[in-house]
From TrEMBL:
This is Formimidoylglutamase. The lineage of its organism: Bacteria, Pseudomonadati, Bacteroidota, Flavobacteriia, Flavobacteriales. PANTHER family: ARGINASE/AGMATINASE (PTHR11358), GUANIDINO ACID HYDROLASE, MITOCHONDRIAL (PTHR11358:SF26). Pfam families: Arginase. PROSITE patterns: ARGINASE_2. Gene3D superfamilies: Ureohydrolase domain. It comes from Salibacter halophilus. Belongs to the arginase family. One of its GO terms (molecular function) is agmatinase activity. Keywords: Hydrolase, Metal-binding. GO terms for biological process: putrescine biosynthetic process from arginine, via agmatine.
């Protein structure tokens, strides 16, 4: 498959970079030549100029190059050893569906080759296109969004847009979504019916207040993700004004960078997108700079991966068994001796759940293990088990 025809070159004004800048080690699409995509772990950036179905942030289709102008000037770290490629921008197709097809085709092409796509939007409905890539790969996935609300929309009959794409993912057939998590939602933006649906489907949420209280709660949730989708409206407006819906509350810039690094160090995350940056509302490039730093932290995280995805018989893990009254089998926890990170093993209750095998080991925290030691079944264990039924 030739993906070159999907892309416009990186702006010529951005091609030259100073020694020591991150841009100096990024292989860019320019002079009529697309960088070669080889088999193996590498980070692949590309922008998507699509916002036609958006209800807000129409200017985000022009955001990618603004972000690049700051990203390229950030300093490279001595630990940045993995290749980084910038393919340029996918411009809007004849129809929005054409753009979605291009994005899903490119993401599937990259993930199949163990590359990690980093999408710079564009509006967040592009998450739907990112998700469709995994249908092409026939891979059941976990999706995590960082957003101020759940983008469910108001009617199933609505055309897909940046405020209802999640409902389109949930209703899409065949369904390849195993689990969904939202981080940073603000209760006054969440309809009660939507909250009830999230609970009924055994999905996860981590409200803004809980994030702010303890950012360590975010790490296992992000570690459990295949796809991460970041809405810039989740950042409070005083920290990041470049969004039409920017509000007085939200995550801070440094918290967002921390979330991005959590995504980077997760062995499971295979694609990430940053959406809803609208340069029309930005002041002095603050939001473009914030987004650039988030990508920098994601790159730093990927380069810091320790290869600690659990294998049940691996010598790199300590196994803990906890008896729970009323359970026939013990709860099994694994702790990585490399990173001190924890997982819990959730058994299949039926043979039909075998298609979910890669989701059987669920990232968790030490607190989940402590809860089990008190003869209480962790909520995360129950939610996962119920999905297998």
């Amino acid at each position: 498959m030739d993906i070159a025809f999907y892309f416009n070159e990186v702006d010529a004004q951005l091609m030259k970079n100073e020694k020591g800048d991150l841009g100096s080690i990024i292989e860019k699409h320019g002079d009529g030549e697309l960088p070669s995509i080889t088999e193996g772990v590498q980070i692949v950036l590309f922008g998507v100029g699509e916002s036609r179905n958006a209800l807000s942030n129409k200017g985000s289709e022009h955001g990618a190059n603004y972000v690049r102008s700051y990203l390229y000037k950030l300093k490279k770290d001595t630990g940045f050893n993995l290749p980084i490629i910038d393919l340029g921008n996918i411009l809007g197709g004849e129809t929005v569906s054409d753009t979605y097809y291009a994005v899903s085709s490119v993401v599937a092409y990259l993930v199949k080759r163990n590359c990690i796509p980093v999408i710079i939007g564009g509006t967040q409905d592009l998450t739907y296109a990112n998700y469709l890539a995994y249908e092409n790969l026939e891979q059941v996935v976990n999706l995590t969004t960082i957003d101020r609300k759940f983008d469910m929309g108001v009617s199933q009959e609505e055309e897909i847009n940046n405020e209802n794409f999640l409902s389109k993912i949930l209703l899409h057939q065949p369904n390849y979504l195993f689990h969904y998590t939202n981080i940073g939602n603000q209760s006054y933006f969440v309809d009660e019916d939507v909250k009830d649906l999230i609970d009924k489907l055994h999905f996860d949420e981590l409200r803004l207040g809980l994030c702010r209280r303890d950012m360590k709660l975010v790490e296992p949730l992000v570690r459990n993700s295949d796809i991460v989708s970041f809405d810039m409206s989740s950042i409070k407006g005083s920290d990041s004004p470049g969004n039409e819906l920017a509000g007085p509350n939200g995550l801070t810039n440094d918290e967002c960078c921390q979330v991005a690094r959590y995504a980077g160090i997760s062995e499971k995350v295979t694609s990430i997108g940053f959406y809803e940056y609208d340069p029309e509302f930005d002041r002095q490039g603050i939001s473009a700079h914030v987004l650039a730093q988030m990508i920098w932290y994601f790159i730093d995280g990927v380069n810091s991966r320790k290869g600690d995805l659990p294998l049940m018989n691996s010598k790199n893990y300590l196994k803990y068994r906890v008896h729970i009254d009323g359970f026939d089998e013990d709860l099994v926890f694994l702790k990585s001796v490399k990173t001190d990170r924890w997982w819990m093993n959730v058994p299949f209750p039926s043979p039909k759940a075998n298609r979910f095998k890669r989701h059987q080991l669920v990232p968790c925290s030490y607190e989940d293990y402590q809860e089990a030691c008190k003869n209480e079944v962790p909520d995360l264990w129950l939610k996962t088990y119920q999905k297998f039924l």
